[in-house]
User: Which sequence fits this backbone?
C-alpha cells in the first residue's frame, strides 16, 4: 500500500509547520537555557559592559524619531542596489529620471523631518 | 511610452499633489495654505480622472497594472470622494493643531494608494497599494483634536488592520504556492484541479478575509464602530466611503479569479452576507451616536454588496460595482451633515439633530436625501442599486437570500427614519440658525447632486458598471 499525500494533508502539514516554527523559539530556550543565576543575571542589559544606572530613567523621545527615520532610509537605500547593478547596461534618460524621482521623494522626507525639528537634539 | 504614461495620469496627479501639499506643509506649516493646495490638487485629480475615463492599457510591466473601464470608473469615484472630503476638511477645528498642515497630505496619499489598488492585477502590487492606502488611513484616524480618542481609534484600526494584512499575505502565499504565480490573469488561467484544491481555496479565503476587513463584513467588522466614533469626522467620511469603494473594487477583481461553480465559496459568502446584513441592521437600531449608527449601517451595506459579489455572475458584479459607487455618494451626504454639526470635533448624537430642518433647511434636506438613499426609497439611487442586486441574485436562484435582504432593508428603514424624525419633528432648545462653512455646503451640494442625478438617471452609471464588469472578466 503506497502512502500518498493528499491535498488536505499537505495543507494541514503547512499549518502544523507554521505552528511549530512559531512555537519552537519559545520552547527550545526553556529546554536548553542555563538555570543558574549570578550577579549579572538581573541586570537590565547583559552585554559584557557594566550597565550605567537603572532602565527606569527618562530618555529623550527625539531618539526614537531619529531611529525611526534611520530605519526608513536604510531600507529605502536597499532599492538603489538593483538600479546600480543594471545602470551601466546602456544609458537611458528614463532611468536617470526615475532614480532622480526616487531620491527626490526621499530627500523631501529628510527635509520634512528637518523642518519639523527631528534633528534638533533637545 | 508617453501615451502609456498618460494612462497613469490620475494616479500621477494624486501623487504629485500629495508631494506638493507636503512641500507647502513643510514651508508654510499652516493648515490653510496646505488645504488650498490640496483643494487645487483634488480638483485636478477629478479632472484627470474624468479625462481618463475611457483610457485603456498597461502603463508598466505587462500583467501588473491594468487600466481599463473598471479601474477608471473606480478612480473617478475615488476622485470625487477625495474632492468632497477635502472640502469637508476645510473646517480644521476637529483636527489637532500640530497636524492641520499635514492632514490633506494623508488624504491625497490614501487616495493614490486606493487608485493604484483598483488597477493592480498582480498580488504584490495589490498588497503594496493596500498598505499604502491603509497607513495613510491609520494616520487620518489618529489626528483628532483629543489625543486620547485619536490614539484609541488609530490603535484599534492599526492592530486589526495589521492582523488583516498578515492574514491576506498568508493567503497570497498559499495561492502562490499552488499556482506558482502572483499574476491574477495567470492564476485565473490555472487548471480547474488546482483551482479547486483545498490549498488554493484556503488561500483565497484568507486573502478575502483581509479584504473583507476593509469592507467591514461581519466577522471582520469589530473595528468599524469604535474607529468611526473616535476618529475625526472628516477621516470617517473618507474611511466610510472612498475606502469602501476601493475594497469593493479589489474584491470584485479577486473574485473574478474564482471558479464559477465553487459551491464552498458561494455558501461561505452567502453566510457572511446574511449575517453581515442582519447584524449590522439590528445593532444600528440601538445606537445613539450618529457615527456609530452609520458604522453599523456600513456593515449592513457591506452585506448588500456581497449579494452582488457572491453571484459571481456578470450582472451581480455590475450590481456590486454600481452599488459601491452610489454608496459613496449617499454616504458622503450623510457624513457631510455629521461634519457640519460636529463643530470642534464634538460627537454628533440624536440631540444635536434636534430642529435641524429649521436651523439649516439645506442640511436637513441633505440628511433626508442621504438616508433615504441608504434605506433604498424609490426616487434615490439606493432603490435602483438594491433592485439590481436583488435581480442579479434571483437570476442565480438565491430566492431566500433576496427575501432576507428585503426584510433587512425594512429593518434599516426603521433606524434611518428615527434619525430623520429627530431632525424634522423634534424642536431645538434654541432655534439659532446653523451656519456651515461654504466649503462644507459645497461638499453637500456636490454629493446631493450626484445622488439625485444617479437616482433619476441610473442607466448611464449602470452601463459603465456593466462595462467595468466585462473588463475584469466577470462571466
Assistant:
Amino acid at each position: 500500500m503506497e502512502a500518498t499525500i493528499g491535498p488536505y494533508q499537505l495543507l494541514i502539514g503547512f499549518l502544523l509547520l507554521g505552528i511549530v516554527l512559531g512555537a519552537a523559539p519559545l520552547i527550545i530556550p526553556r529546554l536548553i537555557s542555563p538555570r543558574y543565576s549570578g550577579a549579572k543575571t538581573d541586570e537590565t542589559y547583559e552585554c559584557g559592559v557594566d550597565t550605567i544606572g537603572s532602565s527606569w530613567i527618562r530618555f529623550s523621545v527625539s531618539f526614537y524619531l531619529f531611529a525611526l527615520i534611520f530605519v526608513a532610509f536604510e531600507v529605502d537605500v536597499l532599492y538603489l542596489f538593483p538600479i546600480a547593478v543594471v545602470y551601466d547596461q546602456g544609458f537611458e534618460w528614463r532611468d536617470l529620471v526615475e532614480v532622480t524621482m526616487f531620491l527626490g521623494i526621499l530627500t523631501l522626507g529628510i527635509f520634512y523631518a528637518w523642518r519639523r525639528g527631528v534633528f534638533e537634539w533637545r | 511610452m508617453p501615451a502609456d504614461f498618460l494612462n497613469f495620469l490620475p494616479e500621477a496627479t494624486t501623487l504629485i499633489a500629495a508631494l506638493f501639499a507636503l512641500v507647502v506643509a513643510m514651508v508654510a506649516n499652516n493648515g490653510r495654505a496646505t488645504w488650498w493646495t490640496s483643494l487645487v490638487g483634488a480638483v485636478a485629480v477629478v479632472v484627470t480622472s474624468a479625462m481618463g475615463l475611457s483610457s485603456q492599457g498597461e502603463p508598466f510591466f505587462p500583467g501588473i497594472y491594468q487600466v481599463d473601464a473598471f479601474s477608471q470608473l473606480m478612480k473617478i469615484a475615488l476622485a470625487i470622494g477625495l474632492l468632497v472630503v477635502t472640502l469637508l476638511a476645510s473646517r480644521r477645528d476637529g483636527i489637532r493643531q500640530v497636524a492641520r498642515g499635514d492632514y490633506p497630505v494623508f488624504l491625497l496619499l490614501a487616495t493614490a494608494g486606493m487608485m493604484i489598488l483598483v488597477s493592480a492585477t498582480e498580488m504584490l502590487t495589490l498588497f503594496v497599494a493596500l498598505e499604502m492606502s491603509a497607513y495613510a488611513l491609520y494616520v487620518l484616524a489618529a489626528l483628532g483634536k483629543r489625543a486620547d480618542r485619536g490614539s484609541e481609534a488609530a490603535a484599534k484600526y492599526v492592530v486589526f488592520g495589521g492582523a488583516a494584512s498578515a492574514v491576506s499575505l498568508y493567503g497570497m502565499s498559499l495561492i502562490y504556492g499552488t499556482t506558482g504565480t502572483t499574476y491574477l490573469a495567470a492564476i485565473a488561467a490555472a487548471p480547474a484541479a488546482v483551482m479547486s484544491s483545498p490549498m488554493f481555496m484556503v488561500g483565497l479565503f484568507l486573502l478575502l478575509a483581509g479584504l473583507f476587513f476593509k469592507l467591514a463584513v461581519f466577522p471582520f467588522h469589530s473595528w468599524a464602530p469604535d474607529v468611526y466614533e473616535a476618529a475625526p469626522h472628516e477621516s470617517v467620511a473618507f474611511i466610510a466611503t472612498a475606502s469602501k469603494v476601493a475594497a469593493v473594487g479589489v474584491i470584485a477583481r479577486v473574485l473574478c479569479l474564482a471558479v464559477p461553480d465553487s459551491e464552498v465559496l458561494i455558501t461561505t459568502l452567502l453566510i457572511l452576507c446574511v449575517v453581515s446584513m442582519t447584524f449590522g441592521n439590528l445593532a444600528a437600531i440601538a445606537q445613539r451616536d450618529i457615527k456609530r449608527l452609520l458604522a453599523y449601517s456600513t456593515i449592513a451595506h457591506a452585506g448588500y454588496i456581497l449579494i452582488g459579489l457572491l453571484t459571481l455572475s456578470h450582472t451581480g458584479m455590475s450590481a456590486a460595482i454600481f452599488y459601491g459607487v452610489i454608496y459613496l455618494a449617499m454616504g458622503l451626504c450623510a457624513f457631510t451633515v455629521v461634519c457640519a454639526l460636529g463643530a470642534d470635533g464634538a460627537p454628533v448624537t440624536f440631540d444635536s439633530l434636534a430642529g435641524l430642518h429649521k436651523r439649516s433647511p439645506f442640511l436637513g434636506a441633505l440628511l433626508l436625501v442621504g438616508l433615504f438613499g441608504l434605506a433604498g426609497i424609490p426616487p434615490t439611487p439606493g432603490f435602483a442599486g438594491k433592485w439590481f442586486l436583488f435581480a442579479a441574485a434571483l437570476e442565480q436562484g438565491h430566492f431566500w437570500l433576496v427575501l432576507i435582504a428585503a426584510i433587512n432593508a425594512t429593518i434599516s428603514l426603521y433606524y434611518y427614519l428615527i434619525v430623520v424624525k429627530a431632525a424634522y419633528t423634534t424642536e431645538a432648545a434654541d432655534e439659532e440658525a446653523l451656519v456651515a462653512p461654504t466649503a462644507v455646503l459645497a461638499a453637500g451640494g456636490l454629493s446631493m447632486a450626484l445622488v439625485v442625478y444617479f437616482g433619476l438617471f441610473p442607466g448611464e452609471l449602470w452601463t459603465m458598471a456593466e462595462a467595468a464588469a466585462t473588463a475584469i472578466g466577470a462571466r
Notes: The interface with chain A takes residues 1, 19, 22-23, 25-27, 29, 174, 177, 197-199, 202 of chain B (CB under 8 Å). The CA atoms of residues 376 and 386 of chain B lie 7 Å apart. The two ends of chain B are 32 Å apart (CA to CA). Residues 2-471 of chain B form one domain.
